[in-house]
Amino acid sequence: MNSVTQIPRLLVARCQLFLAGERGASMVEYALLIGLIAMVALISVTLFGDALGDKNSGIAGSIMSATS
């Protein structure tokens, strides 16, 4: 066997062993949790972004008028 075909097979075998163990399972769970949090944050910004921007602009305007 030459090394060009041996390296990918070795890499796949190592990944399978890693994912079969407890550490691999924990890593996958954390990755899924981070993905879920990122998705919720993205959806929240998409849905409420304009309203929050308008609210912040109103607050900034109130502060500017109060200080001048």
Could you explain how this protein is built, in words?
This protein has 68 residues and is an all-alpha fold. It contains two helices and no strands. α1 packs across α2. The N and C termini lie far apart (79 Å). The mean pLDDT is 82.
What would you say about this model in short?
The protein has 68 residues and is mainly alpha-helical. 94% of the residues lie in helices and 0% in strands. The longest helix is centred in the middle third of the chain and has 46 residues, at 22-67.
Topology (SSEs and partners):
Blueprint: H1 3-20, H2 22-67
How many strand units?
Answer: 0
What is the 3D shape? rod-shaped
The chain-level mean pLDDT equals: 82
Q: Can you give the helix content as a percent range?
A: over 70%
**Strand portion, in percent?**
under 5%
Give the biggest beta sheet. none
What is the CA-based Rg, rounded?
25 Å
Output the structural class.
Answer: mainly alpha
